[in-house]
Write a structure and sequence with these properties.
The protein is α/β, with parallel strands linked by helices. It is 25% helix and 24% strand. It has helices spanning 9-12, 62-66, 78-81, 83-91, 105-114, 186-194, 212-218, 223-230, 249-260; strands spanning 24-29, 42-45, 49-53, 70-72, 99-103, 135-139, 145-148, 151-157, 165-170, 175-178, 198-204, 238-242, 266-267, 273-275. The chain is globular, with a radius of gyration of 18 Å.
């Protein structure tokens, strides 16, 4: 099958000696559900990297979709991976190189077995064939850093109902920590406290306090739990709250302000941008 002669992403991201690249991070989705303008979790780094691939990816124009070369997956839950099958299927004919999907072994095994399995969706690691695929998996380990065009992306600990990680994004000038889906997790704060250039923290708080039991059972956070977690942090980054459940955003953020106001947390919003 013929492919486009479009230049592969890594060549376009090379830096001159001594140059430090700025990273631009755009929020494509940050909700714990859908409805109206709500989109599930996806962060676009510059124009070629996704961190998670929820429903917000589908709002990008076709040309932007075709420029995505790398997808870092925090965990296998559908709200974080739902756009990967559609993305690969949509742009594979337009690309000169496969899309690379990064994740810990358990996450990639779940994607192989339960999503790209020829039953739910075709296995694009075998299309057109195994030697010339439209998508490849790249296994990473917790604590491992992947460098792409001077940008460093490190898998950091998360504590969820399935094997999971968060990510630390570092341009060399500044960094952003993204918790992924997680509950109380001392190991995450060890990484956060060792990030000398931390500027932003994106952390989930999926449920309001009245649903604390659900938060505990599903290994998410509620505002009171969030406050206890933030108390473990020595840094003072700007704090943004993600993964709010539809219909409960205002209540949850009110409780976040009451429980954790000294960290001045704000609600993450679609199309918000961060520069590192």
């Amino acid at each position: 099958m013929a492919r486009s002669s479009r230049a592969a992403g890594p060549a376009a991201n090379r830096l001159r000696a001594g140059e430090v690249r700025r990273m631009r991070i755009r929020v494509l989705g940050c909700s714990g559900g859908i409805g109206g303008s709500l989109r599930t979790t996806a962060l676009l780094v510059d124009d070629d990297i996704l961190v998670d691939a929820g429903t917000g990816v589908g709002d990008l124009p076709l040309e932007s979709l075709a420029r995505i070369d790398h997808i870092f997956v925090s965990h296998s839950h559908l709200d974080h991976v739902t756009s990967i099958p559609f993305l690969v299927d949509t742009v594979c004919w337009m690309r000169a190189a496969p899309i690379v999907v990064y994740g810990i072994k358990d996450t990639l095994d779940i994607l192989r077995a339960h999503l790209f399995n020829w039953k739910v969706w075709p296995d694009f690691t075998q299309i057109p064939d195994g030697d010339n695929p439209f998508m490849v998996y790249r296994e990473i380990a917790e604590g491992q850093t992947v460098e792409i065009g001077g940008r460093r992306i490190t898998a950091v600990p998360a504590n969820h109902t399935v094997p999971a990680v968060g990510y630390l994004l570092d341009s060399g000038r500044a960094s952003l920590a993204y918790s992924g889906d997680t509950t109380a997790n001392d190991a995450f704060w060890t990484v956060v406290n060792e990030a000398a250039n931390l500027r932003y923290l994106i952390i989930e708080t999926a449920f309001s306090n009245k649903e604390r039991e659900i938060a505990v059972a599903s290994k998410h956070l509620c505002p009171d739990m969030l406050a206890r977690e933030l108390a473990k942090m020595r840094a003072r980054p700007e704090v943004f709250i993600t993964h709010l459940k539809p219909g409960e955003g205002a209540l949850t953020m009110k409780e976040v302000s009451e429980a954790a106001g000294r960290w001045r947390p704000r609600m993450l919003e679609n199309n918000q941008e961060f520069t590192l």
